[in-house]
User: Which sequence fits this backbone?
């Protein structure tokens, strides 16, 4: 049983932002907080690539490592969650995270940080029973407790974003790569083969 | 140092400094959601977001709780038709789940589809009827609104004519509402009835139908899994039809090659194997340039052409002029790229072609669409799985609204407006033809060479409605100008010439907006009175059927009751019909519950009348069965493999011939002769006669599998059946109804049934024609746009002569193109879509989850042009068109557009001439994001057949603001 | 020692016995928050299997 992972197949990602609004919808994420966003490289020119990024639920999570109040915990298959009640909003996890996953809603006009908020892999947080009002209010819905997977991946327009058992995700990606076989447009082809298209 | 665990705070405790909730501060509960706090956030929006309680949610009872009920619907945005699953508790829409079972999207959504639950919040919805009094919005009751409006309409009818009221309908109607609306306009007595299809794919429908029979998508999105080449021209599916890209990607992964042709390097082009950048408006030269290589190398499908195509020799003559050098000069595409694309299409079959507004929105739109068809005919790519002309329609039900004739030139089913068409529908409606006739202006008007009675004369198009107001009466082919305008589910900022539109709106006696949102129509004008806003419910608050682009019909369940005081469109129609005095006729055979016409009865009524395109077999029961069994349909072929719908195609794509009892499975891929007609195949339609200039128009040596006539044959009439000796196959009842009729007018469906029984298509077996002799340009040719950057080419490729009357109005062509504007307006101006927004945009810009993603109206400018103009990224600029329309937008510097080309998205509204019109909206309804409408800067120019507007090729100049 | 001091010492020892012999020691890296009921449910193999089925249903190519 592998760890839970996200994978965004950038060959298929079309920057539609379906994953972004699915997350907003499911968890009523307020304006200004971006648990998930789509990053586009080389926008507008050949070689343009998009990839959807949120918390990567790292195995050796730097956010957890640096947190002064130890508000992070991990499920046995790698979902990284945190307790907002403990969080002091210091911002260290934001420094540590390579993906910019931690978000801090502005409390006031001068940008004083509130509690850290981030993608929960749709697994909620510690407070209350699963999908209790309290849990939902603080972290959003808990789909994992209902036997469902993150909504961003379940609603991805082109099935570029995958979320689930890492082995199964890898299987799908491997199959696609095999099917795609040789195409100069594949990401990395030019780097690898230095060929003119 | 000792760290002490903090006490957990009580949720909602307003005195706690460190509180709870996503923001880390106390939040009031939105009681109708399952306890999830909605907190105002973000400095930009903090002051504008308010935390109102939803009245509907019964705040008194606390949070929505109780059992979760699941409802299934279809997204109301684009024509892909993604399944939506809604979770409802206590009548409140609390959750949205992916519809994995739907073969169309398999759970997927784009940003808009993933955000539809926001319709159940309705922050910015129009809540109750409103009336403009002394420049201020006042609330009125439905009864008062309908009475006042009705009185005014009857007054206008009396003083002027029924044609002075324009009933602009919607691509967002359900099928039943669209059908009822067209019937409504007929009962009122005018053909001034149209909808978004006019400005979207009208040139497609006209061009394609006149080429081979029907003007709709021939295959399906799913069918593209089988395409080995996919040619996208003027289509940015990654933003306009994102979930369709799932199917495109699968096709790509199955080895399909993707070619994208566009003036912009779009997000779709980013996934292409080959990208061709063309000058806006030069589609025909490019296609002929491809065909030049195809003919040159003998890559055409000679057998297909000989058997099933008419007039290819005339095309060859025209194509011979388009040598690689000429093509490069006119389109800007180098010869080797054109050849490579042609070779890709020739060597990778079956190939499909996809086009959208980039191809349709031109003065020669009908030439473009026909050229695309001719390319596919030459390659033999039509009537095969993986091939075809896969036209991606726009709005969720623009296909249905088109099919049901919410059009100025036809009754439902493309029957047209001739006396025969009216008699057919009068017999379906069980109404006296003479009575219906009496409802119209009794005079006749001149258009072209004929004098036509108003009832049979096609009306004014939505693209020209402002001219219907502004033009003096003596210039129009109707008694008086338009005095009252209904904008029913239709935005104004999707039409061009916004500055003139403001004037036109000011001149009306009455402006009525029926919409879930106020729309830009509410604020564009400076009127003090005579404007009404009537809140319509969305399709999520009612039920009915919707037709996706691939002609499949899906059934929608009602998710929630209409919010606030909104009402479903068909209820509003009935209420008006009552006031205006024809409710009885409108719903003669339709049960009315309270004031709601029964949707299922409407389906049964159109099942009895829509023989031309086969909307006759899709009964409510069959459609609901498909809804229950979505998961049994194969996602590539759309065929059910086992289960209760075994053998049928998902959504019974039209034509679904005959009566529901005949149980035709629907037709997944049009013109496919490898399938029997009974199993969903058919040949090309014999729609244009039996012969032309001595040559046969019937197919030679090609017929459907299982056809008893192994040859071409004309369309089926009672007489043809008798000649064939098949008349006896009809039952006595069928014979009684079919006597003297044809396959389109036989209300028993017997002619269709018997023809199909013998393996024949009811509409004949003809050749597709490359030349349309009844069009201004029989062979599609190139003509420069009215406002062109290459005025030197106008001499060789001029536009049309001005017309005295065209769709009732004088229409200019040459008198505009004669002047060279390219010195003062040196940049090509083109428009398009963004994935986050849709159409006129008020609905999506009122959805905070979408609005956050695209907060400013902008224009894309190439870095070289920006440097020449002294404009930096993010800077405010004025963009002005040659007719004086100007907009103030932010500059987005990008290489997406070539030097000399500027792109604007058309979804913005709520601004005019540099001013934010926020305060003119009724309180609490101004969308989160507002901006200048791109179409304010777009210009005059209308397609020579359908009056489609030319929004893809105009000119502009830019100055720093 | 004075009698008061002896009594104070006795009280101290009593206090220590009552509260348990220990200072609050900070253990770095150990989660200090509330216990999440999801963890217990999620650790079960049936739950994992349910999620795997869900993945196949929704994200594998159909």
Assistant:
């Amino acid at each position: 049983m592998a760890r839970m992972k996200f994978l965004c197949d950038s060959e298929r990602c079309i920057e539609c932002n379906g994953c972004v609004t699915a997350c907003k919808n499911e968890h009523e994420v307020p304006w200004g907080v971006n648990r998930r966003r789509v990053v586009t490289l080389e926008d507008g020119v050949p070689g343009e690539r998009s990839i959807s990024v949120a918390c990567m639920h790292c195995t050796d999570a730097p956010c957890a490592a640096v947190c002064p109040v130890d508000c992070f915990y991990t499920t046995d298959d790698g979902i990284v969650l945190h307790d907002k009640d403990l969080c002091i909003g210091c911002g260290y996890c934001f420094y540590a995270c390579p993906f910019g996953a931690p978000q801090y809603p502005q409390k006031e006009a001068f940008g004083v940080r509130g509690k850290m908020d981030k993608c929960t892999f749709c697994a909620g947080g510690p407070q209350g029973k699963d999908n209790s009002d309290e849990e939902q209010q603080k972290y959003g819905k808990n789909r994992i407790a209902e036997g469902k997977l993150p909504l961003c991946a379940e609603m991805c327009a082109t099935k570029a974003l995958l979320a689930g058992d890492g082995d199964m995700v890898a299987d799908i990606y491997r199959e696609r790569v095999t099917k795609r076989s040789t195409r100069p447009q594949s990401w990395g082809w030019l780097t690898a083969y230095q060929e003119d298209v | 140092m000792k760290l002490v665990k903090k006490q957990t705070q009580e949720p909602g405790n307003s005195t706690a400094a460190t509180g709870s909730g996503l923001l880390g501060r106390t939040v009031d509960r939105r009681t109708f959601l399952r306890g999830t706090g909605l907190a105002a956030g973000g400095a930009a929006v903090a002051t504008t977001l308010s935390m109102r309680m939803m009245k509907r949610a019964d705040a008194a009872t606390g949070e929505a709780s109780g059992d979760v009920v699941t409802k299934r619907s279809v997204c109301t945005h684009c024509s892909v038709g993604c399944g939506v699953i809604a979770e409802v508790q206590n009548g409140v829409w609390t959750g949205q789940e992916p519809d994995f079972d739907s073969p169309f999207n398999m759970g997927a959504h784009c940003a808009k589809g993933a955000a539809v639950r926001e319709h159940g919040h309705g922050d910015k919805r129009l809540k109750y009827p409103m009336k403009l009094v002394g420049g201020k919005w006042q609330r009125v009751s439905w009864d008062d609104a309908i009475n006042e409006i009705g009185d005014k309409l009857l007054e206008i009818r009396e003083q002027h004519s029924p044609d002075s009221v324009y009933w602009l309908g919607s691509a967002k109607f359900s099928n039943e509402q669209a059908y009822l609306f067209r019937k409504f306009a007929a009962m009122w007595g005018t053909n001034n009835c149209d909808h978004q299809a006019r400005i979207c794919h009208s040139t497609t429908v006209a061009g394609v139908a006149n080429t081979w029979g029907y003007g709709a998508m021939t295959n399906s999105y799913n069918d593209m899994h089988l395409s080995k080449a996919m040619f996208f021209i003027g289509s940015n599916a990654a933003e306009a039809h994102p979930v369709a890209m799932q199917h495109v990607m699968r096709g790509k992964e199955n080895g399909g090659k993707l070619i994208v042709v566009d003036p912009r390097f779009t997000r779709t082009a980013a996934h292409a194997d080959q990208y061709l950048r063309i000058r806006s408006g030069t589609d025909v030269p490019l296609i002929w340039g491809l065909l030049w290589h195809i003919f040159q190398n003998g890559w055409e499908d000679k057998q297909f052409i000989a058997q099933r195509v008419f007039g290819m020799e005339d095309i060859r003559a025209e194509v011979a002029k388009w040598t690689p050098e000429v093509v490069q000069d006119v389109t800007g595409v180098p010869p080797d790229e054109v050849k490579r694309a042609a070779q890709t299409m020739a060597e990778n079959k079956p190939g499909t072609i996809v086009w959208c507004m980039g191809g349709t929105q031109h003065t020669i739109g009908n030439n473009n669409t026909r050229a695309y068809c001719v390319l596919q005919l030459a390659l033999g790519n039509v009537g095969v799985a993986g091939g075809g002309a896969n036209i991606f329609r726009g709005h969720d039900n623009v296909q249905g609204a088109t099919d049901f004739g919410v059009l100025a030139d036809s009754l439902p089913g493309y029957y047209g407006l001739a006396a025969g068409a009216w008699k057919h529908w009068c017999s379906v409606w069980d109404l006296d033809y003479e009575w219906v006739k009496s409802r119209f202006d009794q005079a006749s008007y001149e258009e072209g060479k004929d004098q036509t009675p108003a009832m049979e004369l096609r009306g004014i198009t939505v693209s020209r409605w402002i001219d219907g107001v502004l033009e003096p009466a003596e210039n129009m082919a109707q008694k008086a100008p338009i005095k009252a305008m209904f904008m029913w589910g239709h935005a104004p900022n999707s039409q061009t010439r916004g500055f003139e539109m403001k004037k036109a709106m000011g001149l009306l006696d009455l402006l009525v907006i029926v919409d879930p949102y106020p729309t830009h129509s509410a604020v564009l004008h400076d009127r003090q009175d005579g404007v009404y806003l009537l809140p319509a419910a969305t399709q999520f608050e009612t039920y009915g059927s919707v037709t996706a682009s691939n002609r499949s019909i899906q059934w929608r369940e009602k998710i929630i009751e209409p919010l606030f005081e909104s009402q479903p469109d068909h209820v509003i129609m009935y209420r008006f019909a009552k006031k205006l005095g024809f409710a009885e006729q409108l719903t003669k055979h339709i049960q009315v519950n309270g004031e709601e016409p029964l949707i299922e009865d409407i389906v049964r009524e159109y099942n009895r009348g829509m023989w031309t395109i086969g909307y006759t077999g899709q009964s409510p029961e069959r459609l609901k069965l498909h809804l229950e069994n979505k998961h049994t349909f194969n996602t590539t072929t759309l065929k059910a493999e086992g289960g209760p719908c075994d053998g049928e195609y998902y959504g019974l794509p039209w034509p679904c011939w005959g009566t529901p009892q005949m149980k035709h499975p629907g037709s997944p891929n049009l013109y496919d002769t490898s399938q029997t007609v009974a199993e969903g195949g058919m040949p090309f339609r014999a729609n244009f006669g039996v012969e032309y200039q001595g040559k046969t128009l019937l197919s030679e040596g090609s017929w459907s599998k299982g056809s008893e006539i192994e040859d071409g044959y004309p369309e089926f009439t009672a007489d043809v059946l008798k000649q064939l000796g098949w008349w006896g196959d009809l039952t006595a009842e069928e014979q009684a109804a079919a006597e003297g009729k044809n396959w389109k007018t036989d209300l028993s469906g017997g002619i269709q049934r018997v023809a199909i029984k013998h393996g024949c298509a009811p509409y004949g077996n003809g050749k597709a024609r490359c030349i349309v002799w009844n069009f201004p340009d029989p062979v599609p040719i190139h003509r420069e746009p009215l406002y062109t950057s290459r005025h030197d080419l106008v001499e060789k490729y001029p536009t049309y002569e001005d017309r005295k009357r065209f769709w009732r109005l004088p229409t200019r062509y040459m008198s505009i193109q004669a002047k060279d504007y390219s010195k003062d307006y040196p940049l090509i101006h083109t428009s398009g879509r963004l994935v986050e927004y849709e159409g006129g945009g008020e609905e999506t810009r009122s959805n905070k989850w979408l609005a956050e993603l695209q907060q400013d109206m902008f224009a894309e400018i190439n870095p070289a042009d920006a440097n020449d103009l002294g404009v930096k990224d993010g800077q405010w600029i004025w963009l002005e068109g040659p007719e004086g329309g100007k907009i103030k937008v932010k500059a987005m510097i990008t290489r997406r557009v070539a030097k000399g080309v500027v792109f604007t998205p058309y979804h913005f509204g709520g601004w005019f001439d540099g001013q934010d019109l926020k305060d003119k909206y009724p309180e609490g309804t101004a969308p989160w994001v507002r901006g200048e409408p791109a179409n304010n800067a777009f210009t005059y120019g209308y397609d020579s057949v359908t009056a489609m507007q030319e929004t893809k090729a105009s000119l502009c100049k830019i100055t720093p603001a | 020692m004075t009698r008061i001091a002896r009594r104070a010492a006795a009280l101290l020892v009593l206090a220590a016995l009552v509260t348990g012999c220990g200072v609050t020691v900070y253990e770095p890296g150990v989660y200090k928050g509330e216990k999440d009921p999801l963890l217990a449910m999620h650790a079960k193999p049936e739950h994992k299997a349910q999620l795997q089925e869900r993945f196949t249903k929704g994200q594998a190519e159909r």
Residues 3-19 of chain C form the longest helix (17 residues). Chain C touches chain A through 28 residues (CB under 8 Å). DSSP finds three helices and no strands in chain C. Helices of chain C lie at 3-19, 37-43, 45-58.
